[in-house]
Model the fold of this input.
Amino acid sequence: PTSSSAAMHAVLGGLLLLLPCTTAFLPSTPSTLLSSRSLPLKSAAARHASPLPRPSLAARPSPRFAAALRMAHGKCRAEYIWIGGRGGGGDDYRSKTRVFDKRPTSISELPLWNYDGSSTGQAPGGDSEIYLKPAFMCADPMRGGDNILVLCEMIDPKNNPIPTSTRSVAKKIFDQALEEEPWYGIEQEYTLFQDGVPMGWPKSTARPFDIPSPLMQFGYPGPQGPYYCAVGHDVSFGRLICEEHLELCLEAGLNVGGINGEVMPGQWEFQVGPCVGIEAGDHLHMARFLLQRVCEENGVIVSFDPKPIPGNWNGAGCHTNFSTKKMRADGGLKVILEACEKLGKNHEKHIRLYGEGNERRLTGTCETNSIDSFKYGVADRGASIRIPRFTDRDGKGYMEDRRPASNIDPYVVTALIFDTCCLKGDSVAFEAYKNSIQL
Done:
């Protein structure tokens, strides 16, 4: 080698010798990352003749690990998160990062920010500025350290929430009777898509002839039954996404109570709760945001469509379990039955706000009651409201509203149930939301 290239090799060799010292503070450093930095140096001609192969996706350091390497700056990154013009159904989260000198200790320390509402379908171009008002924050498990996630309300210059910002409206409803202590447990179902089809489904579009059904293809899933809570490579599809999402939710401090595989292959569920009042919407929105981020990193699409596959396949819901202090006390079953009657009288109002496309799911089949009728019963998964058998046995407990679709706005549904069961049931506060979302 020439003298200049020899000098360069000496300098690079010295940097490589320092690498073990810098990684001593990173006990979880992937071995693939270290090995890629300790390959023997070659001349330019040799490198050109035999280029290094690019590591596979599995071998590359994740964006979260790369971010961890940059934590020495001592700053706090706050990811401001809000809901776009398609509404709070889970498929239109927007976010951007603001850097602070130190980690805020409470919501009150976070300043207002703004965004271009004309680019999210929420404001005209001539008056496009919408303010972001921090409402809920938690640890950022993807960046780690002192970084945080901040869920925001969207308000206009007069400090009024815009129609797709439903949190403050819901909170006003809850605040009318805090003594009721409403608890919620929300079962969020979702479907994972890859290459345009649910995970575990065939990717071929060629029609197979000489068989009874044009849907019968090699690898096409059989009838429902083997996939619910199933274990095995040929019956469970997307578990790694589901597990990674759960881990991030727990690291963030969100009240996520569990996960499971659902009835349709490629469909999963996580549960949020028990949460009190407005917290149910906060935790569910933040959990959905993290699910979107996990899928983004893994090249997978998450769908909250209530009936992603037509036919004899279960749809995706957001079953909402609900109780109050009186329902959980002795004699609470009587209060639950009274609430069921109230819900029945307001069925059409609730259905209108229980998710878009829900008519494709609530058909009276596949563990649903028809969207055109209302009924409740003990342990009946074909009812609008299911009363668990334990609740019936103990004479107290909770009920499950099985009507909400997977793409609900949780602030709307939880507050609407509370208004109907515990207040006068005459709130029309969410009609503006219904009329504003862009499908």
